[in-house]
Specification:
The chain has helices at about 15, 60-70, 80-90, 160-170, 185-190, 205-215, and strands at about 5-10, 25-30, 70-80, 95-105, 120-125, 140-145, 175, 195-200. By secondary structure, it is of the alpha/beta class. It has a single domain, classed as Rossmann fold. The chain has an eight-stranded mixed beta sheet, sandwiched between helices. Strand 7, helix 5 (about 185-190) and strand 8 (about 195-200) form a beta-alpha-beta unit.
């Protein structure tokens, strides 16, 4: 992978996405701030995700940019209250949608004696006509363990990101992550032979992502 295969940008994702040409990426794979995880801890684990969980973006404008930039498929991990909003916007753009779920094979036992364990995170899938799809006749339920030593508080497993990249793109395609965090999607792109565009607002996480992706290369 050459230096030209990776483009990293620091700043507001909506502003920076406006500089990307129409239909310039094959796949968008992102983890939007949920706006619902951070709350008072019960003492078993830290529930403060800080700025990583603050959602100050207009999802309608974001979905408009996604539709304009992406010529293939969008995967947007999101909070439960964001699901219907995103599905509605993508359907308005004429895209086919599915609500998908990541089932954690090692969920936290917090409050497990009082209620069901929190073992699912959701992702809205949307595709344009003729978009690549390589996982035929599989359920939209992805099983994967959650990492316990996370660099970023909402970090997803590299193997899970690799699976989604392989499912909805081909080698040499370009993948965008507009909420790059610590760079997991970028690492997965390097590992699978895809080009990567990453955007991150936080300067600290941007540098961590840059170093992780460089090390993966």
């Amino acid at each position: 992978m050459s230096a030209s295969d990776v483009l990293l940008m620091q700043g507001d994702c909506l502003e920076l996405m406006r500089n990307l040409p129409d239909n310039s990426v094959d796949l968008i794979l992102c983890d939007l701030p949920y706006g619902e995880v951070t709350h008072k801890s019960g003492g078993l684990r830290t529930l403060d995700r800080g700025k990583a969980d603050e959602c100050n973006m207009d999802l309608a404008l974001v979905s408009d940019e996604f539709k304009r930039i992406c010529k293939g498929t969008i995967y947007a991990f999101c909070g439960t209250e964001q699901i219907s909003v995103l599905v509605g916007h993508f359907k308005r753009h004429g895209m086919t949608t599915r609500v998908c779920a990541w089932e954690k094979t090692n969920p936290s036992p917090m409050n497990g004696t009082k209620l069901w364990l929190s073992g699912l995170e959701f992702c809205v899938f949307a595709r344009k006509a003729k978009a690549t799809f390589n996982e035929h006749c599989k359920k939209a339920l992805w099983q994967s363990p959650s990492g316990r030593s996370k660099i970023h508080p909402t970090e997803k497993p590299v193997k899970l990101m690799e699976r989604l990249i392989l499912a909805s793109s081909n080698q040499g395609d370009t993948v965008l992550d507009n909420c790059m965090g610590s760079g997991t999607t970028g690492v997965a792109c390097v590992n699978t032979g895809r080009k990567f565009i990453g955007i991150e607002m936080d300067a600290g996480y941007f540098e961590i992502a840059r170093q992780r992706i460089e090390s993966a290369k």
